[in-house]
UniProtKB/TrEMBL annotation:
Region called Disordered, residue ranges: 11-32
Protein name: PP4R1 phosphatase
Record gene name: Ppp4r1_3
GO cellular component, one term: cytoplasm
Keywords per UniProt: Repeat
GO MF, one example: protein phosphatase regulator activity
Length: 281
């Protein structure tokens, strides 16, 4: 009877996101499921104990973090409560390699868990990764679009204020970080409105166009051209006109040859010529 009542609790979707305080016995029951042998799951959960990682194998926590999305997929979102504490333990592990592993897979876990659990349990972890070391931040940056597209529109807009922080890295010579940011911004154009693009993404794009590393600048040229195309297709023409005027002032009329060359490179994209003809023609 005790087992039946426990399983009934586990499969009740309305209780998935509750954070009640359990007694030790209730805590044990909360991790009971009927998908895989319970002893197997208990063994996996015990491997994330920090004391065990110090005495048995220092890499064990990293392996557990690598396997966690697969375990979550096997158990299903109805049994996420069995893994929630373990995930939070790994997300706060002192080894950055463990946190980095979770950062690279958090978007996959969000697909498995769905909107409600992602907003309640993964978003706080995601926010922590954004403030972590560059080795961890690159994990969320590489899949930034994949994660943000799963969030509600209002929640997604909150991250517009934090995109600027990706321009700052622990090592300024880490140009691949900025190149990845430019790649992700191209994908993010489809997730935000014309006003959001103009107010928040445009300043970042112009900053990347003036980067010291040519590889970053080349990706940024594509970003700006895609931005022009996106604003041109918007219902309000004001944004694209202002953007085109800014391009002319910053680059076309720049007193440095490198700035004028930047304008030429941006204009290599065919869609930008079409926009110029449409706006000024």
């Amino acid at each position: 009877q005790s087992m039946d009542s426990t399983l009934h609790y586990i499969h009740n979707d309305s209780d998935l996101s509750t954070n009640s305080s359990f007694s030790p016995e209730e805590e044990r029951k909360s991790k009971v499921q009927d998908v895989v042998p319970q002893a197997l799951l208990d063994q996996y959960l015990s491997m994330t104990d920090p004391s065990r990682a110090q005495t048995v194998d220092t890499e064990i926590a990293k392996h557990c973090a690598y396997s966690l999305p697969g375990v979550a997929l096997t158990l299903g979102r109805q049994n996420w409560h069995c893994l929630k504490d373990t995930y939070e333990t790994l997300a706060s592990d002192m080894q950055w390699k463990v946190r980095r592993t979770l950062a690279f897979s958090i978007h996959e876990l969000a697909v498995i868990l769905g909107d409600q659990l992602t907003a309640g349990d993964l978003v706080p972890v995601f926010n922590g990764f954004l403030k972590d070391l560059d080795e961890v931040r690159i994990g969320v940056l590489k899949h930034l679009h994949d994660f943000l597209k799963l969030l509600h529109v209002d929640k997604r807009r909150e991250y517009l204020y934090q995109l600027q922080e990706f321009l700052v890295t622990d090592n300024s010579r880490n140009w691949r970080f900025r190149a990845e940011l430019a790649e992700q911004l191209i994908l993010l154009l489809d997730l935000y409105s014309a006003r959001d693009i103009y107010d928040y993404l445009r300043p970042i794009a112009f900053s990347l166009c003036a980067d010291k590393v040519s590889s970053v600048r080349w990706i940024s040229y594509k970003l700006v051209s895609e931005m022009v195309k996106k604003l041109y297709m918007a219902s309000t023409p004001t944004f694209v006109v202002d953007l085109m005027n800014e391009l002319v002032e910053k680059f076309c009329r720049c007193h440095k040859w490198s700035g004028r060359q930047t304008f030429v490179f941006i204009c290599q994209v065919k869609c930008l010529f079409i926009c110029i003809l449409g706006v000024w023609g």
